[in-house]
Amino acid sequence: MTDQIIPDFERGVEAALFASGEPLSVDRLATYVGDGDIKAALVAIRSRHAGSGIELVERGGRWHFQTPGDLAHLLRREREEPRRLSRAALEVLAIIAYHEPVSRAEIEAIRGVQTAKGTLDVLMESGWIRPAGRRDVPGRPLIYRTTADFLTHFGLSSRRDLPGIEDLRAAGLLDPIDVAFDALELAQADETD
What we know:
Blueprint: H1 8-19, E1 24-25, H2 26-33, H3 38-49, E2 55-59, E3 62-66, H4 87-99, E4 102-103, H5 104-111, H6 117-125, E5 129-134, E6 142-146, H7 148-153, H8 165-170, H9 176-192
Antiparallel strand pairs: 1-3, 2-3, 4-6, 5-6
Helix pairs in contact: 1-3, 4-6
């Protein structure tokens, strides 16, 4: 690597990111390093670390350092035990991710069964969903949405990166019954045309 003179502001942004225990937004970085072109500093830091043992990534508008995926095999011993979610919790999380903001009643209508309060509590404790206000309808039900931690955990830059129905089908993640229902709906739609 050639000798580089790195501006103090850029060094400050890099130090704040390195020392932080969580990903940081541009606004949060500004509270540490003050006014300056934080976005330009992030681009320079990302470029400087490209191809090295760490990389700077942005997930859901927040920045953090991580180990590149091709080096994961070196760190297998450091892996923490993955969190196990029930099928109901996974269904609820998927519904919230794809339909947010969504109320508990809307979740139950999509699932076709009642959702235990504990299921929503587990997802909130994990930091993957949060209350997002109240729906402006009678009863003013609480609505939920995913968090930046959800995006970070699942390696998504934004909700637009969630797989579509064709991606899920191609990966073999849809039950054959789901495929049959889709075909039936298409056939019924053709009959009405």
